[in-house]
Amino acid sequence: MKTLNVSEKTADSLRDFLDGEDIDLQTVSPGEKACVSIYPDEDGKRTECSPETLYEGGWITCTNARTLARRLNILMWESGKLLDFLHIKIRDCELGCFQ
Question: Most-buried pick from 14, 27, 49, 95 (CB within 10 A)?
């Protein structure tokens, strides 16, 4: 099972979301080694995310969102729901759906 390293602030709500959506990911405490780390976007502007590091309220390219899904071994629609939950916008969409 793949793991997400999340802040304590986000951990409970993210666990509830993953359970409710039946997405097969596990959260770990801050500081533990994980496949993907999730951080709050402290400065209030949208920070670019990578397949290894997500910022709540940030943005990610379509290519990197696809890589994220492969890295986590989840379906694309599941990664889309995860990104929506974290308020992460997709940019540079390969299908032209998002600017």
Answer: 49
Q: Are 92 and 65 in contact (CB under 8 A)?
A: no
- As a dihedral over the C-alpha atoms of residue 42, residue 61, residue 23, residue 2, rounded to 10 degrees, the angle is -80
Handedness of CA 17, 29, 43, 69 (dihedral sign): negative
**Interior angle at CA 71, CA 65 and CA 76, nearest 5:** 45
pLDDT in tens, 35-83: 899 988 877 788 999 999 999 999 999 999 999 999 999 999 999 999 9
pLDDT at 6: 87
